[in-house]
């Protein structure tokens, strides 16, 4: 329907007969509107440079430049040539509605030709096109047909027709006629007199414009909807990457690389807009850097540098340092390091997000001969070239394999990136062989039959391989769903998003022929591999368990063994801890307690020192880290039966809350219920259970009672004094 640098006029019939339909079927108007919507959607989301205009005929009003002396009536130019946008989609959804008049489709065609001639004058276009959607159920002045054909030919304008029925008898089943009442006017076999007459006029016009393939430009509504249901991908021009292929120091071949396969990204990105005006310019984002102090002192951007975390420390790096630490090389290159057998390059080691095709430079005959010789030699010897690839001076170099690719009309190298040592993941798995469960020949045969029945490649009648499932023709479902929801939200704001379209679900499903073919092998597989429920054997109880005299000693021993095992694993994973650090003080505290090298009181003192450092930052993130430390402090104090250090610190912390402005932190502490350790938990504690429960409750009452004295003060100065 369109190409690059193209002007297209969509000419749609909205007249009276377009609304006719059989019960339960869509009318020609609804189908034609869907065709237009699908086409405009594709152009909007693919961001093409196609300019679109919309002309409606059969309208109640008349608005076109040729409507003089009662001619070209009931034709309205709804939108002039411009790049399609979401506003056009909204207009088609809300403003293009069926009307009560009839319009001459030949007159509408003349209006479209005049619009193209006027609005493209002085501009360069590769293609001028008119797409006319109608049911042809109108009276037409056929005297002007020859003149119209002549002017279309001279101006180079192409025409496409979209009808509710096919114009060729052998394609009758492809239209919409079989879906409706055969006697209903405006359908395939039950065509009205006007439709039959106009159908012949359309065939005459299209064959005059294009003798051979003219009728191929006449489509049915339903076929067009099926072809247009898929959102068109963003068109991208191939960008050449010129370079030199070098082998050693003496052989150099001029080459050009093109991306053959690459990871496609959505071009449109989410942006922040004002919730009311929906305008991007109404929202401005400012980034301000401040010191984490009471005054939140602002820091200029020039006074900030990057830091890299190295263990528990942060190593600062200036921009100069960052530039110097980058890997330096000579720039773009495609240097052959050596050759190896193709069999040594395993497919599971392919990596990267692109495949690059390497051709000889177009204007260099010597380069073409040299590269062709290299490609053919690699192909004959079943070898590949291992190359060093760098896209440009600032990109990191890669190591990859260049495979020979010879086709009937071209020769090239296919570059695929290979992994470095750090990219490889080594795993060790146990063998699948199990002497206890060895499959029988019948079971193996059943699995083979299932695999054969699910093969996605089969031979056709001519003995050629045919794909039943073609991934290269399946669009990215995430993109399709994304654009479907964008379109719906643009034209129907405030309504729920629609479900995934049926055609997209069907495209991702297993082919029906495979489903039918694998049914019998699956039944055989179920019979050959019967499933039986295995009951768990009851464990034999010991005499101590039966008579309830299990030794407490063994339980304590088990706990000690578990603790020792956990400690050893922690040592292996984290290394030895010598003090309570700032990265994870709670973990360090637990590790020091387990080591039993330092006295408990000294370790507690280190932890409280870290808690005080964290609380000095007055930030929710540091508050949460402090609470984690207090939880670990309480947990270990209870486990060791020493509540003195914990209770003493928590009481002193509570007393300093008002002066230090840590009310927010204390609220978090109250929410977590971190109170004093009572006698019920540790025998040596001097705090009763009632006092421990009252420790946090009393604080809440004081906070609630605090505002009472400043109530009902009308004097501003007195209020400020109180504050």
UniProtKB/TrEMBL annotation:
Residues 169-195, 700-723 are annotated as: Disordered. It holds the Pfam family Ku_N. GO terms for cellular component: cytoplasm; Ku70:Ku80 complex. Its main location: nucleus. GO terms for molecular function: ATP binding; damaged DNA binding; DNA helicase activity; double-stranded DNA binding; hydrolase activity; telomeric DNA binding. Keywords: ATP-binding, DNA damage, DNA recombination, DNA repair, DNA-binding, Helicase, Hydrolase, Nucleotide-binding, Nucleus, Ubl conjugation. Residues 296-435 form the Ku domain. Residues 172-183 have a biased composition (Basic and acidic residues). Transmembrane segments: none annotated. Residues 712-723 have a biased composition (Acidic residues). Its EC number is 3.6.4.-. One of its GO terms (biological process) is DNA recombination. It comes from the Eukaryota. InterPro entries: DNA_bd_Ku70/Ku80, Ku80, Ku_C, Ku_C_sf, Ku_N, Ku_PK_bind, SPOC-like_C_dom_sf, vWFA_dom_sf. It is found in: Nucleus. Single-stranded DNA-dependent ATP-dependent helicase. This is X-ray repair cross-complementing protein 5.
